[in-house]
Amino acid sequence: TSNQMWGGRFASGPAAIMEAINASISFDRKLYAQDIRGSIAHSEMLAQTGIISTADQEKIAHGLNTILKEIEAGTFEFSTRLEDIHMNIEARLADLIGPAAGRLHTARSRNDQVAVDLRLWVKDECFRVAEALKGLIKALLERAEEHAATVMPGFTHMQAAQPVTFGHHCMAYVEMFSRDLSRVRDAIERMDESPLGAAALAGTSFPIDRHGTAKALGFREPMRNSLDSVSDRDFALEFLGMAAICATHLSRLAEEIIIWSTPQFGFVRLSDSFSTGSSIMPQKKNPDAAELVRGKTGRVTGHLVGLLTVMKGMPLTYGKDMQEDKESVFDAAETLDLMLAAMTGMVSDMTVNAAAMKKAAGSGHATATDLADWLVRTLGLPFREAHHVTGRAVALAEEKKVGLEKLSLEDLQSINPGITADIFSVLAVQNSVKSRTSFGGTAPSEVRKQIRAWKKRIAKA
Ligand code: ARG
């Protein structure tokens, strides 16, 4: 038999394979609450504008609320034959209230219906992500405050470059995740427009009130172009773009945690609750949560690329290709939520080994730049020459197999006779860090200023 919703012109039903490729109910059932919300708002507007009767509207709203309860109680029977969440709900509505159900779809198409459902869902998810980001930022701020003066090596090319503080390092991630927070907020602003009432693509001849339904659904205003309304998926792409960038930040932090927790580094120890053991090697404590955060980033980024690729060939307006938007969005959302929660847990729970960090900060001649700066400041050498002199001091230290700060005054004076014993305080990592007081620099005083400012901002965010 042909489809009960659109089968009027069809003599027979679809092939089994057609049904299989066409159906989206296995995943778009996730939109049930948004679909019902959208339908209730639409029906109320239809009654207010006199397009349907109040009696019918009341039946529709009552039926939809019953369906909501059925779905939430797990008693609703989803059917693949009914393709998607929209038709599953509408068919059940007809069972429940009879012919009045058929009036709900007046001045509406599944094209604007699905667009409004998914927007509502993505908007809710954006608020969830914003909250999760705030939680992570707070966890990082706490660790930063605790370790504002904990010296560690700062790296470039993964080689010890200059000493920094662990607090400063944490605050770099606070900056990154705060940009993600601002990106998700921006995305919310732009997606805050309702496509409902665009109907199939051209609008409708019924005297509908799009401003009314937009407001009822919590949108700022209706979208201004009916063609764009049903064909736009920028809101999903922006969500995925934000998610991919945020996942990339999480992955970079995860990678650092993995490196820091190796016995070779020993900078941090993950708590038992965020690590796993090996089934064969009893000594192992593996950073699986961090590795999964790093790994799942590939999945999130894949979803962004996936949907961009779906959309790139879409002529206006709707094409069934666009049904492929949902699994990308849902999986990216679920994955990102989990990644944010796992990272927040790891950051809060990990033990920081300040002694190991400090020891590593002192190795690799990490204060060579401080020596060069001292030669400029105290002896008036041009920086390039100071760089060269310092390079010779490093070479001498290498030759003697000691750290730069362990060279004797005589050794240093053999390279430049102007060097005095003052230099040793400059070569101490703690002093090196303390001296970097430029705005945004690693000096604990500066780091603490940034922590205070961010704490205030996040409390208001
Ligand atoms: N399940 C469809 C989707 O997710 C709903 C819209 C169907 N529209 C249509 N014209 N066939 O995109």
From TrEMBL:
Its EC number is 4.3.2.1. It is an enzyme of class 4 (lyase). One of its GO terms (molecular function) is argininosuccinate lyase activity. Transmembrane segments: none annotated. Pathway: Amino-acid biosynthesis; L-arginine biosynthesis; L-arginine from L-ornithine and carbamoyl phosphate: step 3/3. It catalyses: 2-(N(omega)-L-arginino)succinate = fumarate + L-arginine. Residues 10-302 form the Fumarate lyase N-terminal domain. The keyword Methyltransferase does not apply. InterPro entries: Arg_succ_lyase_C, Argininosuccinate_lyase, Fumarase/histidase_N, Fumarate_lyase_CS, Fumarate_lyase_fam, Fumarate_lyase_N, L-Aspartase-like. This is Argininosuccinate lyase.
